[in-house]
């Protein structure tokens, strides 16, 4: 990678690495990093070549997605970057949107839930109904995430995510490319990256990141559904921590098998 992303116009306050910062704790160059980085760049370039303007990056504004946005900018690929503002995000998460624009000149598209649906749900079930049952949690995710995601992906043939195999047992088989439930190609551009890789890249190329990562939140979602993890806990232990391990997905990443992708000839 070139040094193009080493200056930080418009970014006033990057987190400072210390022994307890995410960079201090995790950033490490391990064997094969350069090859994994080259592979990711190739995946992004291939996806753009195959899908063009029908491709977008769906960013949660988490560490992995910030790496992907930085690479899209470095490769000068005119790929749309889009995020979901569920209405329950931490202010620290939303603070990354102007940083992305200032740093990379990329104005992320923001998709919000339908206001009437949120009001109706909150009036009927309460603001924090997600703690009451799995069904209510999924209903909240459906209104605040899945419906806006379907609008985000409308008209797109492919999307880029930051899913990694290392993130959880549920994601251990994540392929580089797969099909989502609607048959779009999903490019998991960092599928084989480690957490050390992610932070080595962020540290080396001074990528803006969510300061909550410095507070032991490796996986950050909505504020009511994210907590810090303790030493020894799994990567996603702070997400929907009151639920059974197997339920810990919001439905954004339900996919068809890679076999269907191969049969379709849509591999990126
Ligand atoms: S993560 Fe929590 S607050 Fe966000 S949409 Fe799902 S249940 Fe609702």
From TrEMBL:
<keyword id="KW-0408">Iron</keyword>
<dbReference type="InterPro" id="IPR002500">
    <property type="entry name" value="PAPS_reduct_dom"/>
</dbReference>
<feature type="binding site">
    <location>
        <position position="141"/>
    </location>
    <ligand>
        <name>[4Fe-4S] cluster</name>
    </ligand>
</feature>
<keyword id="KW-0479">Metal-binding</keyword>
<keyword id="KW-0411">Iron-sulfur</keyword>
<feature type="active site" description="Nucleophile; cysteine thiosulfonate intermediate">
    <location>
        <position position="250"/>
    </location>
</feature>
<keyword id="KW-0560">Oxidoreductase</keyword>
<feature type="domain" description="Phosphoadenosine phosphosulphate reductase">
    <location>
        <begin position="55"/>
        <end position="228"/>
    </location>
</feature>
<comment type="similarity">
    <text>Belongs to the PAPS reductase family. CysH subfamily.</text>
</comment>
<dbReference type="Pfam" id="PF01507">
    <property type="entry name" value="PAPS_reduct"/>
</dbReference>
<feature type="binding site">
    <location>
        <position position="225"/>
    </location>
    <ligand>
        <name>[4Fe-4S] cluster</name>
    </ligand>
</feature>
<dbReference type="GO" id="GO:0043866">
    <property type="term" value="F:adenylyl-sulfate reductase (thioredoxin) activity"/>
</dbReference>
<dbReference type="GO" id="GO:0046872">
    <property type="term" value="F:metal ion binding"/>
</dbReference>
<comment type="pathway">
    <text>Sulfur metabolism; hydrogen sulfide biosynthesis; sulfite from sulfate.</text>
</comment>
<dbReference type="GO" id="GO:0019379">
    <property type="term" value="P:sulfate assimilation, phosphoadenylyl sulfate reduction by phosphoadenylyl-sulfate reductase (thioredoxin)"/>
</dbReference>
<comment type="function">
    <text>Catalyzes the formation of sulfite from adenosine 5'-phosphosulfate (APS) using thioredoxin as an electron donor.</text>
</comment>
<dbReference type="GO" id="GO:0070814">
    <property type="term" value="P:hydrogen sulfide biosynthetic process"/>
</dbReference>
<keyword id="KW-0963">Cytoplasm</keyword>
<dbReference type="GO" id="GO:0051539">
    <property type="term" value="F:4 iron, 4 sulfur cluster binding"/>
</dbReference>
<protein>
    <recommendedName>
        <fullName>Adenosine 5'-phosphosulfate reductase</fullName>
        <ecNumber>1.8.4.10</ecNumber>
    </recommendedName>
</protein>
<dbReference type="InterPro" id="IPR014729">
    <property type="entry name" value="Rossmann-like_a/b/a_fold"/>
</dbReference>
<dbReference type="InterPro" id="IPR011798">
    <property type="entry name" value="APS_reductase"/>
</dbReference>
<dbReference type="GO" id="GO:0004604">
    <property type="term" value="F:phosphoadenylyl-sulfate reductase (thioredoxin) activity"/>
</dbReference>
<dbReference type="GO" id="GO:0019344">
    <property type="term" value="P:cysteine biosynthetic process"/>
</dbReference>
<dbReference type="GO" id="GO:0005737">
    <property type="term" value="C:cytoplasm"/>
</dbReference>
<feature type="binding site">
    <location>
        <position position="140"/>
    </location>
    <ligand>
        <name>[4Fe-4S] cluster</name>
    </ligand>
</feature>
<dbReference type="InterPro" id="IPR004511">
    <property type="entry name" value="PAPS/APS_Rdtase"/>
</dbReference>
<feature type="binding site">
    <location>
        <position position="222"/>
    </location>
    <ligand>
        <name>[4Fe-4S] cluster</name>
    </ligand>
</feature>
């Amino acid at each position: 990678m070139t040094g193009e992303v080493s200056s930080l116009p418009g970014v006033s306050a990057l987190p400072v690495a210390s022994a307890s910062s995410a960079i201090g704790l995790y950033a490490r160059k391990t064997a094969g990093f350069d090859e994994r980085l080259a592979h990711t760049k190739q995946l992004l370039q291939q996806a753009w070549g195959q899908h063009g303007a029908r491709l977008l990056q769906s960013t949660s504004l988490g560490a992995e997605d910030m790496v992907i946005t930085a690479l899209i900018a470095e490769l000068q690929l005119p790929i749309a970057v889009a995020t979901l503002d569920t209405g329950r995000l931490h202010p620290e998460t939303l603070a990354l949107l102007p940083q992305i624009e200032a740093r990379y000149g990329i104005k992320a598209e923001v998709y919000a839930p339908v206001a009437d649906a949120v009001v109706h749900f909150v009036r009927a079930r309460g603001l924090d109904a997600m703690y009451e049952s799995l069904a209510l949690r999924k209903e909240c995710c459906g209104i605040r995430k899945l419906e806006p995601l379907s609008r985000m992906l409308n008209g797109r043939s492919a999307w880029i995510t930051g899913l990694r195999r290392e993130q959880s047992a549920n994601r251990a088989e994540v392929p580089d490319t797969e099909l989502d439930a609607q048959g779009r190609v999903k490019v998991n551009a960092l599928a084989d990256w480690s957490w050390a890789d992610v932070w080595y890249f962020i540290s080396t190329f001074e990528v803006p990141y969510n300061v909550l990562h410095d507070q032991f939140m490796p996986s950050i979602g909505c504020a009511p559904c994210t907590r810090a993890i303790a030493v020894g806990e799994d990567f996603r232990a702070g997400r929907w921590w009151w639920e059974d391990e197997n339920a810990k997905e919001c439905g954004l990443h339900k996919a068809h098998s890679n076999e269907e992708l191969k049969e379709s000839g849509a591999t990126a």
